[in-house]
Amino acid sequence: MARYRGPACKLCRREGVKLFLKGDRCFTPKCAIEKRNNPPGAAPMGQRPRQRMSQYAVQLREKQKVRRIYGVLERQFRRHFRTAQGMPGMTGENLLRILETRLDNVVFRTGFATSRQQARQIVQHGHIEVNGRRRSSSSAQVKIGDIVSVREKSKNLDVIVVALNRAESFTRPAWLDIDAKNLTSKVVTLPDREHIDAVVNEQLIIEHYSR
Q1: Measured distance CA(13)–CA(42) in Å, rounded
Q2: CATH number of 102-189
Q3: Which CATH architecture does the domain made up of 8-99+200-209 adopt?
Q4: What's the pLDDT band for 186 if we cut at 50, 70, 90?
Q5: Are 160 and 150 in contact (CB under 8 A)?
Q6: For the purposes of burial, counting CB atoms within 10 Å of the CB of 17, is it exposed (0-12), middle (13-18) or buried (19 or more)?
Q7: d(CA 188, CA 182)
Q8: Are the C-beta atoms of 107 and 150 separated by less than 8 Å?
Q9: What are phi and psi of 179, to 5 degrees?
Q10: What backbone phi and psi angles, to 5 degrees, belong to 38?
Q11: In the predicted model, is pLDDT for residue 28 greater than 90?
């Protein structure tokens, strides 16, 4: 499966905001945004001022930002957008809800991984079950009532143990019923817009695809 293999911090610098792509590193002074918040590329003295953007560029950057936050490639993101258009309600909120209910994001939100990239690896390596059945597709959509859990043989994996210890200090999503002791998470409702903490303007994405 195609995926981005370049440096994650470069993506944050390109968007000019923290996308939280590298777990705990994003909360330390080693974060690229903390060290040099300028676009990637050669520039005198290591600095290149951000230029004023056109409306199209603003819309494009917002779309790219959301894609990179959730680790979705362009074709997949466009498919999610078409699905959101066909659903009742507001397209922008539907799109974010689809992205939030991807299996890799649920694993991350539950606290089984320190980043979405790590969550994708955990899912693809077969460490996660949905309703008692192993799932290896990180893009699989969860539904209300689904129970996401770590396989019995994988509960002592170092990456999962470390992630769970870290997650104790973070606020848990209201739309998930998390049982940290048994390493399970139940989807009790679909996330509303206020439950989605990604700082994005979804209306700009709609305008971008409506051009």
Answers
A1: 13
A2: 3.10.290.10
A3: Orthogonal Bundle (1.10)
A4: very high
A5: yes
A6: middle
A7: 17
A8: no
A9: -110, 90
A10: -135, 155
A11: no
Q: Where are the domains of the chain?
A: 8-99+200-209, 102-189
Euclidean distance between CA atoms 23 and 25, whole angstroms: 6
Confidence tier at 44 by pLDDT (50, 70, 90): very low
Q: Give me the pLDDT at residue 167, please.
A: 82
> In this model, does residue 5 exceed pLDDT 70?
no
Strand order in the sheet with 184-187: 133-134, 128-130, 147-150, 184-187, 176-179
- For residue 176, give Cα distances in angstroms to 8, 65, 94, 129, 152: 28, 25, 18, 16, 21
Sign of the Cα torsion 70, 210, 78, 190 reads: positive
95: three-class secondary structure by DSSP: helix
Residue-wise pLDDT for 112-147, tens only, equals 999 898 999 999 999 999 999 999 999 999 999 999
Tell me, yes or no, if the pTM score tops 0.70: yes
Quick one: residue 126, left, alpha or beta (phi over 0 = left, psi -120 to 50 = alpha)?
left
pLDDT average, residue stretch 89-112: 95
**172 band by pLDDT with thresholds 50, 70 and 90:** confident
Question: 84 Cβ partners below 8 Å, 6+ apart?
Answer: 91, 92, 94, 95, 97, 98
Q: What is the mean pLDDT of residues 46-53?
A: 62
Contact between 167 and 210 under an 8 Å Cβ cutoff? The reply is no
